[in-house]
Write a structure and sequence with these properties.
Shape: rod-shaped
CATH architecture of the largest domain: Sandwich
Strand content: over 45%
Distance between the termini: 128 Å
Oligomer: single chain
Number of strands: 12
Order of helices and strands: HEEEEEEEEEEEE
Number of helices: 1
CATH class of the largest domain: Mainly Beta
CATH topology of the largest domain: lipopolysaccharide transport protein A fold
Strand order of the largest sheet: 2-3-6-7-5-4
Length: 195
Amino acid sequence: MNTEIRRRVPALLTLALVLLLAGGSYWALEVARRSSDSPQVRSPRTEPDYIIDQFRYIAVARDGKAEYVVEGERLLHDPVSDSSLVEQPRLRNYAPERAPMTLRARTARINRDHSEIQLHDDVHLERPQARDGEALSVRSAYMLVLPERDIVKTDRAVSARLGDSVVEGVGMIADNQQRSLALNGPVSATFLQPR
């Protein structure tokens, strides 16, 4: 019997090795299947999903007329927040019943539905002289534009020039529909007689 076992040992070892390989393959396949069924944890995306150089965006009203234009040197779209970062932005309204207003800054962030445009760093608002008023120029470090309401506001220091008069304060609301400018906080002004 001893010789009979010795003759079968190589076959039994081969069978054990094949069973071990088959079991290991099944286990590896199950691990792979289970990991593909579980939701993958993805790292948040940090790079923009598209970049546009020297762009021009025209917002059109329901009647088909241009309301305002946003231009810039570069637009980077963030897919996580669905917002856009604009380098060297320029905004201009085109409402025929209102005086044109132009804004410039170093950077801007536009929210997902374009209802808010945040201008940052060396922000400059200009409204040219109209028949019933003088030219307006306003500077600040930050301004929030609400294009649908034609309102620009800030909670930062502001320097406004209306004709030859200069007004400075902290916080501002400029309503282009009403052609009004309201400054908050401590205000100082220098008024000069019109020529």
